[in-house]
Amino acid sequence: MSQYFEIHPDNPQPRLIRQAAQLLHAGGVCALPTDSSYALACHLDDKVAAEALRQLRQVDAKHHLTLLCRDLSELASYARVDNRQYRLLKLATPGPYTFILQASKELPRRLSHPSRRTIGLRVPAHRVTQALLAELGQPLLATTLIAPGQTEPMNEPQQIRAHFQHRLAAVLDAGACRREATTVIDYSGDTPLVVRQGWGDLARLGLQAPA
User: Domain limits at 65?
Assistant: First the structure.
C-alpha cells in the first residue's frame, strides 16, 4: 500500500519531504506534483527502480525518461550544453519545458537513449518537487504520469493512489495539477525542434509549433 503524504503546495512540510526522500533512497517509485502534471519519479542511481518506473508506464528503453533538476547548473552536469542552448534553457527554466539534449559523460549510459545518447532534462517550478530535489541533493529520474492505455496525464492524487496503490512507494498530494504534459523541445542538434506542444508557451522562447 502506498504511503500518502498531504503536502502544502506552497510551503512543503520538511518532515514529509524527508520521509519521501527516504523512500526514494530505498528504491521506491513515487508520484509527485510538477508545474504541468503529476510525474512518476525514482532515484537516479537505482537500476531496479528505473526498470520499475518503465514497467509502470509500460515504455521501453527508447522512451526518453527525464531528469528533474534543481537548476541549470545541475542540468549542465548531465548534458552537453553550448552557449546557444544555454540561452534558450535560461529562458525556459524553471518551467513546464522538457529539453532533449546530448548526454554528458557523467550520465550513466543506461539512462540515455540507446542509439542517440540523448536524455530529457527539465527544471520544474513546483515548490514541492523543488523541495524534494533539494533534500535529495541530486536529480530525480522521472516520466509523466500517464496510466497504461491512456493518453492524458493523471492529476488527481486520490485517483493516482487508487490506481497504483500497490505499486508506488508514496503519493505526494499537493492538490490537483494541470492535466497537461510539458512542451518537449529536441535541442540535441544545431537547432531546437518542437517535438510536443504542451503547457509550456513556445512564444516565450521565440519558437513556433510544428506545422
Answer: 3-205
Q: Give the pLDDT means over successive 10-residue stretches in the chain (211 positions).
A: 92 97 97 94 94 91 88 90 94 95 85 83 96 96 90 90 92 90 93 93 89 69
User: What does pTM read for this prediction?
Assistant: 0.93
Residue-wise DSSP of 122-146:
E----HHHHHHHHHHTS-EEEEE--
Please give the mean pLDDT across all residues of the chain: 92
Which positions ≥6 away from 55 have C-beta within 8 Å? none
- The CATH code of the domain that includes 58 is 3.90.870.10
Q: Sort strands 66-68 and 183-186 into parallel, antiparallel or unpaired.
A: unpaired
